[in-house]
Amino acid sequence: MAHIAGLVAAGLHPSPVPYADFVSTTTHKTLRGPRGGLVLCREKYAKDLDRITFPGLQGGPLEHVIAAKAVCLKEAAAPEFREYQKQVVANARALAAGLARLGFRIVTGGTDNHLFLVDMHSRGITGRDAELALERSGMTVNKNAIPFDPLPPMKAGGIRVGSPAVTTRGMREPEMEKIAGWIAEVLTHLGDTAIEQRVRKEVATLAEKFPLYARRLEAANRAEMLHTQRANN
């Protein structure tokens, strides 16, 4: 599942689990846990999977990562997580629509999940150039090949843009409009140092209004409070 695991956990994307004997996924990306992974399987395969994992493939397990995965899965089971994932999709759609209105071609015309590809060929630049310009401007995307791309992967004809990180900070559709405007401005004036420096300051100002760890701590405390209330009832 990798990218879509969080959407699957929230019931916003079809799950492969009922149909597959084995399902693998990362625990980061939309699942919003530590960088790592897990494998789900039918009970009849569990012992064989454990056997080939350890000691065959895995050395010493990392207990801190195991603990972080447990926290991640607990968060994913909370009602708030479904609301978070709904906002992830809403933000991705708003960001894609904003860029489309500003003249950028979204490869799939829009998005139903947490990310989308933007065609850079029509703007006369490479994905690599776009990635670096946006990085200098305080925004992180990555170059990405698009369908029928004549460019090699290290240059690429597009960029991939996603919404989970900014959604975790608490940003919503109005902020997506701002981000779309910044991306469009930087890429329309590629290499303009003055614009990049100004946008970088504006991005930092916006980020300060949505502190990452304060948001996560607030969500965790709220989830713990709800759990305690249910246990007491």
Number of helical stretches of at least 4 residues: 9
What percent of the residues sit in helical stretches (DSSP H or I)? 40-55%
Looking at the overall shape, the CATH architecture of the largest domain is: Alpha-Beta Complex
Q: What is the distance, rounded to the nearest whole angstrom, between the alpha carbons of the first and last residues?
A: 36 Å
Strand ordering within the main sheet: 3-4-6-5
Q: What fold name goes in the CATH topology slot of the largest domain?
A: Aspartate Aminotransferase, domain 1
Estimate nothing, just give the exact number of structural domains: 2
How much beta, percentage-wise? 5-15%
Can you tell me the CATH superfamily of the largest domain? Aspartate Aminotransferase, domain 1
Average pLDDT, to the nearest integer?
93
The SSE order reads HEEHHHEEHEEHHHH
Give the oligomeric state of the chains in this entry, treating copies of one chain as homo and distinct chains as hetero.
Answer: single chain
Please tell me what the overall shape is: globular
